[in-house]
Amino acid sequence: MEIVQVVGLGLVATMLILILKETRPEFAFQAAIAAGVIIIVMILGYLAEVVQAITEVALEAGLNIAYLQTLMRIIAIAYLAEFGSQVCQDAGQGSIASKIELAAKVIILVMAVPIIMEVMKAIMELVPA
Amino acid sequence: MDIDIDVLFKIAGIGIFISVLNIVLKQADKEEQAQMLTLVGVVIVLLMVLQLINELFESIRTIFNLF
Q: In terms of domains, do A85 and A54 share one?
């Protein structure tokens, strides 16, 4: 019943941040970041199980390990960028948040280029020039 | 994954403590020292938050088998 802990922590954190926001907004944001990190780390254990299961299935199917690695990296980048951009948006820095998202999109695109090239090559072989 | 929730309460506690001290210092006409106290508090809390974020990055790295 990890959800009880997560909801409880979220509610308590919200109350504390409401108290802090009146007098010290900078501490309120830091407490919000801490609460977010704690909640994410709490649920990372479950995520690890899912990642383990996906890896096992992929290895059993004989998938190229490099593709799986790329996929995992893209998922990790997406999670981290989401977290960072939401923290920035909470602090009222919407422009930095959208830059973080842009950076994540570009990095994901760069990582996906080898796979896209592979698909392109396969299509080229199918279609006679 | 086990992580200590105490950090959150520590941060909130430091924040409340410093805002109380701030009021006291302002009453005693020591505005600059109140400002310095706030700065030191922010830096201390920032170090704690940085450790937390480092922990988050490390665990994401280990879970997704990066590096």
A: no
A46 and A69 fall within a common domain? no
Measured between beta carbons, which residues in chain B are less than 8 angstroms from residue A76?
60-61, 64, 66
Mean residue pLDDT of chain B comes to 89
Q: Which residue of A has its CA nearest to B39?
A: A26
Which ipTM score applies to this complex? 0.85
Asked whether the CA dihedral A56, A65, B67, A81 is positive or negative, the reply is negative
Domain boundaries in chain B? 6-63
Q: What is the pLDDT of residue A35?
A: 93
Query: A24 lies in which domain range?
Result: 1-63
Q: What pLDDT shows up at residue A26?
A: 87
The answer for residues whose C-beta is within 8 angstroms of residue A75's C-beta and 6 or more apart is B64
pLDDT band for position A129 (50/70/90)?
low
What part of A 74-103 touches B (C-beta under 8 Å)? 75-76, 79-80, 83
CA distances from B16 to A20, A109, B29, B52 (A): 7, 44, 20, 20
If asked whether residues A102 and A128 sit together in one domain, one would say yes
**Judgement on whether residues A50 and A86 belong to the same structural domain of the protein:** no
The count of domains in chain A is 2
Tell me: do A42 and A86 sit in the same domain.
no
Residue keyed to tokens 């988050």: B56
pLDDT of A79 higher than 80: yes
Global pTM reads 0.84
